[in-house]
Specification:
The protein has about 550 residues and is mainly α. Helices cover about 80% and strands about 0% of the residues. The chain contains 23 helices and no strands. Helix 1 packs parallel to helix 7, helix 4 packs antiparallel against helix 5 and helix 13 packs parallel to helix 16. The longest helix is centred in the first third of the chain and has 37 residues. The two termini are about 40 Å apart. About 55% of the residues are buried.
Amino acid sequence: MSLKKDSLIKGTIILAAAALIARFLGIFQRVPLDYMLSKDGGAYFTAANNIYLLLLVIATGGIPSTISKMVSERYAQGRIGEARQIYRAAVFFGIGTGIVISIVLYWTAPFIAATFSRLPGAATAIRAIAPALLLFPAIAMMRGYFQGRQLMTAGGVSQVIEQILRVIVGVGLALLVLSWGYGDEWVAAAATFGSVLGSVGAFLVMLWYAFRLRRQDAAEPPFPQTADKSKRLRLRSIYGEIFRMSVPIVLTAVTVQFFYTFDTFFFIRMTEGYYALGEAKSALDVLGIKAQAIAGIPPILAVALSQSIIPVISSAYAVGNLDEVRRQTSLVMRIVLFTGVPAALALTVAAPSVTGLIYTPGGSGVVAALTAGTIFQITMMTTNSILFGLGKARQAMYHTVTGMLVKAGLSVALGPVLGVYGLIAASTVSFILITWLNVASVRKAAAVSVLGSRWVPYLAAVALTAAAGRAVDSAGLRLLEALPYKLASLITAAVATMVIGGLYLILLAVLGVVRREDAASFPGPLRKLFTALSRLRPDKKNVAGRL
């Protein structure tokens, strides 16, 4: 069976499905850890996991997107040989980067744990996760090449396999170490070691897809060899182009993880005027084990769209097709608004029942606050990728650096006054600022129209949905308090989620937010759903102009 290109919608669905599975598997890992670890152990795991994720994004977050853009442009221009040279150079760089960064992290773990986070017990967990960085840079380079070829399945499958192995090995080892009588320090280390086996599985999957693609290209070249306009590229020129483009992308890709790691590292320092040491560890445990895991669900579609949209816009922009650039940019922003926002709303207003269902009681306020901010995290990530596709990565970088500075300043100011909520508020304000700056830059480059005059009914739909969902969640927990807590949370979360999802879709149709041209670009089931919902609109004369 041959590998076929994925359209924007199909590619996004593949990446979103893979990310959704991976995210739920990640939550599945943290649920038993929430019961196995004390507040100290949870803080150790959070510190190790966040420093690992930050370094992973730094090592891999920019170059794969750069490779995706460089490869897609060269294939669009018939320069196939150059695209393959870029791929080989990137993989070699990934191997070297993985070796260096894993060794450095392993040997500096005690210093990082004691000096920055003031959690010396986290050093063992940091060392346990360090070997996972050996393979992930090379894996990321391979994923970037496949995305540039608009073949999203390879990256999606490797991501799912990675998470399955990480969860099974991590939870299994943690249970084994706990049964042997070891303390939180070693249980947290065992849980983080699952990422090492996950990286091995992901690497093997990517090797298999690379072998299949190589055979396919040999049998069915994308272009006749005589039509290839490539020239021989020097490594210096390849790496020069990669780094010029990737440095801005790294700084933008690292934003969310920088915020999370910043909060983790300096949490005790920044909140010591608000919490005692024990209270600070408990709040950090809630933030890292519960809130950050749940808050990672709403941006899944935005992450997938961000990966899918770069090669699509880059290809169109490279050949001067500005109409296609505007169409794809408007489409991706509408998809984000229509689908990403309700996910964030549902998890925000139903945070008490969702948190109670998944974890031990408590911490729903922190979960709700952090998840609410992901609405603007979603728009920030999507507009960053649009700017990359338009060749304006430096503008996105400047906006991101501005947001990081605002985040740091507000965290220092609000942490001693509001504790964990001050740090979350600082992140949310920064997301809003970066989004606003990005949107202004996108509109200068392309006349993008997202909703136009439909913003007022859209915001009304969001507000009404949020109010109804919050009322259902609050009433459900009160009415079912005689039942076991987990059962009451399950029923309430299910009902609240259905009310939020159903009411939101109905309001989008009834208020005329979704129109015919929007629905026509949606996948088949959604197109049919909105066509049926449009019949609920009372103004019959306008039905034909809507949906």
